[in-house]
Amino acid sequence: MTTSTSPHAFSPDAFSTDAWMRRFVQSARTAKDRLTSLDQEVGDGDFGVNLSTGALSTLRHLDANPASGSDPAAPLQAAATAFLDEVGGTSGPLFGLLFQALAVAVADAEAATTPALAAGAAEGLAAIRRVGDAAPGDKTLVDALGPAAQALRTAPADTPPAEALARAADAAWAGVSETARLRARMGRSSYLGERAEGVPDPGAVGIGLLFASARAVVEDLSTRLD
Predict the structure, then answer these.
(1) b/e for 184-201, b at 16 or more Cβ within 10 A?
(2) What would the pLDDT profile of 99-146 be if each residue is shown by its tens digit?
(3) Of 58, 55, 57, 33, which is closest to residue 45 (Cα–Cα)?
(4) Which long-range contacts (CB under 8 A, 24 or more apart) does 159-167 make?
(5) Would you place residue 56 in the very low, low, confident or very high pLDDT band (cuts 50, 70, 90)?
(6) Residue 208 confidence class, pLDDT cut points 50, 70, 90
(7) Residues with Cβ < 8 Å from 58, sequence gap 6 or more?
(8) What is residue 177's predicted lDDT score, i.e. its pLDDT?
(9) Spatial contact of 202 and 47, defined as CB atoms under 8 Å apart
């Protein structure tokens, strides 16, 4: 997987949720066509467009409030607002719930610490499971978010946030790979039976993109999916 050398590339000296969200925007836009192709195989074919739409809406919210860079919860809240209010389909609200939970946890802690991110990921996972009625093994984004949340939860409290999120990204990608071996039990892909096997869940890939973007822009999905 290659990475970007943009101004928002990862710096080991600091962790910024604003930079994280901006890298995620770039990752989602770059992956749009590949995600669309995957979703055409196992879903409604709109996931790539929806994720890219949410990402661009997030960018507009960030650019409209440059001062949010000094508030670690604000960029996450910008993403929550964008995905909850401006993205259709099933994926938009689910990603919005995750961003909302992360924003609340970071706001409560007044910093994007590893414990705060772990709490937000756990609450986001719980909210998504309640709303989407999905369980591990159903071949959904839960199969990537669950391992990512677990990786954050088990990271020592003093782990630098960027390092903890990198561990979460590795766990999420492992979950993405697992979805390719699962038979879907929810959504349109559940009607495809064996035809959906071997194809990773697009929503799970989106979760992988999100956590991987904490370190760098994901410019090529082929090393993760091919």
Answers:
(1) bebbebeebeeebeebbb
(2) 999 999 999 999 999 999 999 999 999 999 999 888 999 999 999 999
(3) 33
(4) 159/114, 160/15, 160/114, 161/15, 161/112, 161/113, 161/114, 161/117, 161/214, 162/10, 162/12, 162/15, 162/214, 162/215, 164/114, 164/117, 164/118, 165/20, 165/117, 165/211, 165/214, 165/215, 166/214, 166/215
(5) very high
(6) very high
(7) 21, 24, 25, 78, 79, 82, 83
(8) 94
(9) yes
d(CA 26, CA 211): 13
Tell the residue number behind the tokens 């946030």, with chain if given.
161
Using one digit for the tens of pLDDT, what is the confidence trace for 60-84?
999 998 876 689 999 999 999 999 9
Tokens for 22, please give them.
């901006």
Please, are residues 121 and 150 in contact by the beta-carbon 8 Å criterion?
A: no
pTM: 0.88
The structure tokens listed for 15 are: 């962790």
DSSP H or E run through 157? none
CA dihedral angle for residue 142, residue 140, residue 16, residue 110, rounded to 10 degrees: -30
In this prediction, residues 168-196 reach a mean pLDDT of 74
Nearest to 138 by CA among 88, 182, 75, 192: 182
Amino acid at 17: T
Mean pLDDT over the full length of the chain = 88
